């Protein structure tokens, strides 16, 4: 049963009453008809025959027709039947919109007579429209933190239908945050409101999607939906939070500037500026600010200054992150500086003793030093050493102190200086090394006596030197140094206290040069021996000595001296020569000696003058004077011969001797044979002269004496055998009288038997045998003398 069907019935009756009173033409009551909208075209509405009150045949005749007020032909009157039919589908919403009831007024017109009948067509609503939201996407922005209970008006939905077919109810998709509340508007319409049930959290759910459904009252109801997007607006309700409460990082010292230390990061759940973070240090020391910097946006912490483990081993850096709403989060960076072996060991010499005296006892402390390495662990652990092969030891002492001590006594004369390189190496990677050089000098101790370059020196000097002549040098060296090596030379006291050494030689104390103080005479002194000393200036002083032998070299300073025949005697010798003597008869023999030695004493003879040249000849090498031819009666009886004796020196010196010869008649009395010579049959009839020659080993003085003695004997023998007479000077030869050597060697002599074989005129002196032989070991010297005498003149 539709509610609308009852109401128009009542209204029709009221209207009918009113209309009929109004006029005569427009009669009676107003007809009322009703139709649902959207009813099919041609649908039957009503039959008007009865309402008109005439027959149906009348309708066509009277041209009955329907005229709506707006002249639109909504209905058609079938004149045959009187049925009112729907001429077109009616849309209530188009015809009346929201006006209710929707009434279309019309007249049914009849002609002949003209009659009007008022009528109304009530168009009934059907639920042919769904509720519609104008905006299908409803955006609601709600700040988080909004208090529960707050309501938010929603747009209402539209439904073209009216009445209960219009929007009757709203629903909301189930959700924990909102419920829907329906409010009545002033026009009596309902509109929806969102009421918040609990806090929104943008960080959990930044946006909610709800479905708002509008329902009409149709049966069945129609619905329309809209999406409600609840956008939760951020408030700064979250502080930034670092991902770690503590960042522990290890950074090697010596990391380059601008190295990345760590990158910190914080998050903020808020959005927009509330979530925009800025990193910074928080309450940090100036040191940290100098050393590190943090990038406000990236959170990277970089080195601003070089780290030095030796200064600071760790840093505690408080950092914060601040969002745009001034909320902050905190964290800490723990920076541990990692040691790098960047410090070489150091050596500090605390004391150094140099020079150190040689011969010191071992373990003498030379140097004290300390070592240090500022690195840690192995980087700071050290090994200390010196070179091998040095007589020094390194000893660790207190803490990091070392002492350098001697290993054994040092000898300055072996080595005066030691360059010691102290090497300290740490055990880091890479190993770092430091070296320190010290020079230790060894000071001298007087432990070496001066040493002569030779144990004995033999110096040669020619005799007759000028006084103060430099005759040679001795030299001694001392291996010590300084005063300990300063040598002073001196003459040592002679072993023979009578030797006047100090008057003969002197020595330069500084350089060891030896000087002859006076002229030396070879003939007086052939050799001189003494000792010299060398003393250093150490304390106590050390000394040594050497032997010096000075051999005087002979000079030709003695002329030959004629022993026979004697010249200065009161009765000169006269040689007797028988006129019957055959050529080569030995008349005489000139005997001469020379005080010099060697070649200076080699003598040669030559006939300088003769009374009768050609009668006599002199043998150059032995001084024998012999007849050169047979003598005759015509030859004068007396002859005088001058014989020159010359030595072999340079220049040569000479002496001359005069011989007197007397030619006598008859044969000469032969020399008496000596028993020893007579015993030898080969030596028959010789003029034999015994000569006893003493050859002194050192001094020729004795030889002279002996030769003088021999000459005297020879002369006496000749005088005894002839009529002539000779004399021998007594005493010593002038100038050769003093034995200056004082060596006592004069007693060492040789005696020879010398035979002058003058009887046949061809004989010569002959050494027969030594008479006494005291020193057989000097036979070499004796042989030389023999040769000189025997072989003279044949060179
Ligand atoms: C609206 O719809 C809800 C859910 O279907 C219902 O509980 C409520 O009673 C309805 N309100 C009206 C006025 O019809
Ligand atoms: C020690 O070093 C010094 C200076 O370098 C040098 O003159 C000297 O010859 C060195 N001595 C030795 C024994 O190496
Ligand atoms: C130390 O001496 C050594 C060897 O003579 C040399 O090579 C080195 O350069 C020296 N060191 C110093 C620091 O003088």
Automatic annotation (TrEMBL):
SUPFAM superfamilies: Cadherin-like. The chain crosses the membrane at residues 689-712. Signal peptide: none annotated. It is a single-pass membrane protein. CDD domains: Cadherin_repeat (cd11304). It is found in: Membrane. Keywords: Calcium, Cell adhesion, Glycoprotein, Membrane, Repeat, Signal, Transmembrane, Transmembrane helix. Its main location: membrane. One of its GO terms (molecular function) is calcium ion binding. GO terms for biological process: homophilic cell adhesion via plasma membrane adhesion molecules. InterPro entries: Cadherin-like_dom (IPR002126), Cadherin-like_sf (IPR015919), Cadherin_C (IPR032455), Cadherin_CS (IPR020894), Cadherin_N (IPR013164), Protocadherin/Cadherin-CA (IPR050174). One of its GO terms (cellular component) is plasma membrane. Residues 77-133, 134-242, 243-347, 348-452, 453-562, 577-672 form the Cadherin domain. This is Cadherin domain-containing protein. It comes from Rhinolophus ferrumequinum.
